[in-house]
Amino acid sequence: MQTTVKWVDGVMFLGESGTGHSVVMDGAPDQGGRNMGARPMEMILIGLGGCASFDVMTMLQKGRQQVSDCRVDIAAERVDAVPAVFSSIHLEFVVTGSNLKESQVKRAVELSAEKYCSASIMLEAAGVEISHSYTIEKV
Question: 69-75: long-range contacts (C-beta < 8 A, 24 or more apart)?
Fold first, then answer.
């Protein structure tokens, strides 16, 4: 896996993935930015959410669950020191669909957290306290 991050100006950077996709990262105005993109630490949370959601949706689809929507709301805390690393992260999955089996949703979230989500497991190994929960919404 490979990526390139190129400085644009101020504290704005353009990240390009090895698959050719780009994302803008920028800082707040009080840090010299123009607020034109996500913060780098927000990108870590977005990546974590994408990784975990990929796992959960893949398992639910394989389990033939009728999912009409899935999102993960992520709340994170950072230490009040430099470096301001994450101390805790909570992922709340909100799965919407009809005839969803709670046991399968629960198992998908657990397997993602414990076995499949590389981002979550890597952050936990670095000392971040990560927790997961889920809500099922019926349509």
Answer: 69/94, 69/95, 69/96, 69/97, 69/137, 70/94, 70/95, 70/96, 74/45, 74/48, 74/49
pLDDT band at 98 (very low <50, low <70, confident <90, very high): very high
* Mean pLDDT, rounded, for 25-35: 96
pLDDT category at 57 given cuts 50, 70, 90 is very high
CB contact at 8 A, 138 and 97: yes
CA-based nearest residue to 50, from 111, 119, 122 = 119
pTM (2 decimals)? 0.94
All structural domains of the chain, each given as residue ranges with its CATH number in brackets, are: 1-38 (2.20.25), 40-138 (3.30.300.20)
